[in-house]
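Give me the fold.
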Amino acid sequence: MVISDFFPYLEVAFEARGLQRQDFAYLDTGFDGFLMIPHTFVSSLGDPDFVSRSELGDSSLTYGADFPGEIRIVGLGQAMKGGITCLGNDWILGLGILNKFTVVFDHGRTVNIDE
């Protein structure tokens, strides 16, 4: 089990095209994807494998560069394959990963995640 006192964030790591990075990602149960990272990573990753279309909370559409990769929650088991989307300025962990775990948002103080 991992307990994060940095509510509502978890430390995650990814690897795509030989690039490895680690940071804290906001847990977003409204995001159906796997991991979103800042758009500035496109310059390190190159041309995307595909471009995804996402609908934002205000119903507008936006497009992100997508790359296959491996995503790992720091402190838990092995990395999982999933899509990494370069869009915006933040790290966001979505349901593509969160649905594989038991996640407890504990009274706005901690996030507990278990395999």
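The CA atoms of residues 3 and 59 lie 33 Å apart.
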